[in-house]
Amino acid sequence: MRSFPADQEIVRDGDDPDHCCLLIEGFMHCYKQLETGKRQIVSFHIPGDLPDLQTMQLNVMDHALGTLTPCVVAFIPHRALHLLVGEFPNLAVAFWRDSLINAAIFREWVVNVGCRPGPQRLAHLFCELFYRLETVGLAHKDGCEMPLTQAVLGDATGLSSVHVNRMMQDLRGRGLIATKAKFLQILDREKLQDFAGFDPTYLHMKEVLSP
Amino acid sequence: MRSFPADQEIVRDGDDPDHCCLLIEGFMHCYKQLETGKRQIVSFHIPGDLPDLQTMQLNVMDHALGTLTPCVVAFIPHRALHLLVGEFPNLAVAFWRDSLINAAIFREWVVNVGCRPGPQRLAHLFCELFYRLETVGLAHKDGCEMPLTQAVLGDATGLSSVHVNRMMQDLRGRGLIATKAKFLQILDREKLQDFAGFDPTYLHMKEVLSP
DNA sequence: CGGAGTCTTGACCGTTGTCAATGTTGGTGG
DNA sequence: CCACCAACATTGACAACGGTCAAGACTCCG
């Protein structure tokens, strides 16, 4: 287990690691850096996530993994994971399900970036983060910690940081959210979801594992 | 095994199917229909693909699956797949890998839609399709079948069909591609990949299964 | 108190969307 | 073999969304 400061690259694009990360505390993100200078964040990760579980099966990292805030990360050798999976086949199923749910989130991100206008795009991202944080007990009744700068939100939504700023003002103006310091207050969850066209089905949270 | 005409929905958003599809012939796509009327295609599928393999683990479809061209599809009951996986654990690993590679493709789509300009976005999609078709022996030396209308390409790239048209002209004007009927000719693969910023690593094609 | 990082604002520009009309093509039936 | 039709591709004019640049305000932290 190790601690890292904010904005630190933990796994590099092209790496071939022999262990997986388990995020204990803090926010991480997966991203790709383009040669044009642009950067696209492809996922956010919160405590409890295994952000690079796929390295158990895919040798080469096709993206980078880094911290957004100070983080505590546990490293688990692939060897140990493979032994565990061999011993507890249900764990293999759980890992597979994890991968599938991640894929479902990626799909929704494609939709978000591909065809929602600025304000809805941000609103949708907020809904998703709120749901996920809620699931692991890290949300409050009326909102959640949101230690993401507007530049980071821009890299995740395909918008410029200036435009993110304007769209946040738009959302505040609509009475959907409020922000103080690094806390995102959700003023009316129903309205926010309706506005964003958010449907939590894709997070597959209510489904029960088949025996 | 059944045949379907073009533009037919095979699995609906919200369904809870008890079988998986194996695409034998033709092109399929996964997509989400928004209430705003917009549609986002999240993946294309070619012969050999299992486009809804995730239904083995995730009960509810969070997107739709349909044909783009006339297709031949084989249906395999989940029950049969679970039995197979029980008998041949390597198959479970293969399925997991399949899901992971699909996820990698989704990640790249997020990047594509999120931060590449129109022409590069189309070029990148063409590179991906060419690689994948090549892998299953369905490409020619200088290009591949491309039975996708400009409206479909638009729904996949987050562009309007009118803009797709203009960007195609741009690519033709740069001497990168040519199109006749439903065939996409790739005039200079190197140049096209460079232009698109395409790096096939994310397709994880050269990697060997660990024993 | 000072400074770095972040947020906010305004002006302007470029990319992309929309609408509507016109070509073009492949397939079908006479 | 030809006429016709529907789907698709193409064009032009215009509008809107979002990007860029540059400056200034705020906030947190040492």
UniProtKB/TrEMBL annotation, chains A, B:
SMART domains the UniProt entry points to: HTH_CRP
CDD domains: CAP_ED
GO MF annotation: an example: DNA binding
Domain of life: Bacteria
UniProt-listed Pfam families: cNMP_binding, HTH_Crp_2
Classification via InterPro entries: cNMP-bd_dom, cNMP-bd_dom_sf, HTH_CRP, RmlC-like_jellyroll, WH-like_DNA-bd_sf, WH_DNA-bd_sf
UniProt keyword Nucleotide-binding present: no
Start and end residues of each HTH crp-type domain: 116-190
Any single GO BP term: regulation of DNA-templated transcription
Keywords, in A-Z order: DNA-binding, Transcription, Transcription regulation
Keyword Transcription among UniProt keywords: yes
Protein name per UniProt: Crp/Fnr family transcriptional regulator
